[in-house]
Amino acid sequence: MEIIRLSENSFKIKGKLAVVVVDFSDKKTTVGDFSVDSPGEYEIAGVTVFGAINFHKIKIDGVDVCCLFADGNKLEQDQLDLIGNVDILLVLKKADEIVTQLEPLVIVTLEKSGTIDSQAKFVITKDKLPETTTYVHLS
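and the corresponding structure tokens:
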């Protein structure tokens, strides 16, 4: 799976079977021609998207990706229960409190912060996920 920055508010996730675009400004996830912009669970082209008001949870290539639309506020327990396991967290900017709550293995952000190295794309597979939390900044 490959994650790249499309704009200051969006990511593209390229999986084996599908391409997913996450647009933070519209709180929308698009898989092929199908857009998820309301609550519900959808399966499109081998990708599962669970849409909620403040987040979308995507299962692609066996990896659990959470796109958090909230601005770094602490999540309530019912939200944490809905999100469940998170391998990769996509956020616009660093959100330490939420990272502590969700415990993702990889945090991908569009905002440069501290000593995080910038890269054009992030490539990962389920079996190559790190054992400790890793930050990635997409430029």
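(Above: one complete record from the training split.) Residues 2-138 form a domain with the Metallo-beta-lactamase; Chain A fold (CATH 3.60.15.10).
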